[in-house]
Specification:
169 residues; alpha+beta; Alpha-Beta Plaits; four-stranded antiparallel sheet; 5 helices; 4 strands; 14% strand; disordered N terminus
């Protein structure tokens, strides 16, 4: 995993252009279809492309463009890392507005950071850390806190819920 999530500007969100405004109908169909998963076959992109009525090269080019434009911040599988011996930890911190971009960059520089998102309360920056072994959690969070210059509050998973999140484009 990497922390290549799009950064959250310190400006008013209402003043930011909406990247979804530039999506065409095919981009929207791709996003909507692939949120439900890829087929478990030797060439999943080819099969997904065929279901969309396009070829594999077009699908891959569109996905690359959506990632490059920041419309998609991550594209990949979701794992139950605990079954493989690892650990996911939801984390929060307070990033002062004047340092928000620097804090985001410092956090995202760590390969263990899966993604982040901003919120409008005191704990205004949340992110997910994934590690291979549970004993790696504390040292990774300490490195992130030192690099970002903020206190990182961990919220380890106590129970798993399947939400089946779907965000139509």
């Amino acid at each position: 995993m990497n922390g290549a999530a799009a950064s959250c500007d310190a400006i008013d969100p209402a003043d930011r252009p909406d990247p979804f405004d530039a999506l065409d109908a095919l981009d929207r169909r791709i996003i909507n279809a692939l949120q439900r998963g890829l087929p478990l076959v030797p060439r999943p992109y080819a099969e997904a492309a065929a279901a969309l009525g396009i070829n594999e090269a077009v699908l891959l080019a569109r996905l690359r463009a959506l990632l490059a434009a920041g419309v998609l911040t991550r594209f990949g599988p979701l794992y139950q890392v605990e079954r493989a011996g690892g650990r996911f930890v939801l984390c929060a911190c307070h990033a002062p507005a004047a340092r928000l971009e620097a804090v985001i960059a410092a956090i995202n520089a760590h390969p263990e950071v899966a993604h982040h998102y901003a919120r409008t309360h005191h704990l205004n920056l949340w992110f997910v850390v994934a590690v291979v072994r549970p004993e790696q959690v504390a040292p990774v969070l300490a490195r992130i806190a030192a690099a970002a210059g903020v206190e990182v509050l961990p919220f380890p998973k106590e129970r798993e819920f399947f939400v089946n999140l779907y965000l139509p484009a």
